[in-house]
Amino acid sequence: MALILAALAAVMLTLFAGAPAANAQGLDLSPYRGKIVLVDFWASWCTPCRHSFPWLDSMQKRYENQGLVVLGVNVDRERAAAERFLRDVPVQFEILYDPQGVLATKYELLGMPSSFVFGPDGKLLITHVGFKTSERDEREREIARLLNEHVRDQP
């Protein structure tokens, strides 16, 4: 666990280093500084992803005015597979592509989907592996709590 946290701390440096957002060499979250950012790794073959996407989309819509940003990172080798998935399960949040698995390797994914929630300062706050419909409400409460803390801490 300590190794995973150390690796994620190293990834956080990359997150705010200024690499282009659409480039799998790094994920630039600097445009979202001051916001709560949920980064969700997914694949077209992932059945739980089909269940998580409508929820993620509703979370983005419900909480975007309070400072939530959802970013999806697709790990399919073939973009066409991801595009077919998105035709079946359309979303409004930003989708990035990582066909070579560069980001997936940096994040040391343990399963699909994998999500990482970062605070307004870029610090990793929450990680989740998998998605269960029965856990949606708890996950939403976690994010709402973070957003409330963030709003309260703002001048």
What does this protein look like?
The structure is a single chain. Helix content is about 40%, strand content about 20%. With about 160 residues, it is α/β, with parallel strands linked by helices. The protein has a single domain (about 35-155), classed as Glutaredoxin (3-Layer(aba) Sandwich). Strands 3-2-1-4-5 form a 5-stranded mixed beta sheet, sandwiched between helices. The chain is globular, with a radius of gyration of 15 Å. The N and C termini lie far apart (about 35 Å). Mean pLDDT is about 85; it is low at about 1-25.
CATH class: Alpha Beta
Radius of gyration: 15 Å
Query: What is the CATH topology classification name?
Result: Glutaredoxin
- Write out the strand line-up for the largest beta sheet, numbering strands in chain order: 3-2-1-4-5
Q: Return the domain count.
A: 1
What's the helix-strand series? HEHEHEHEEH
The average pLDDT score comes to: 84
Q: Tally the helices.
A: 5
Class derived from helix and strand content:
alpha/beta
Model regions low in confidence, pLDDT < 50 over at least 5 residues? 1-25
What is the terminal separation in angstroms? 35 Å
Strand composition percent: 15-25%
Number of strands: 5
- Largest beta-sheet details: 5 strands, mixed
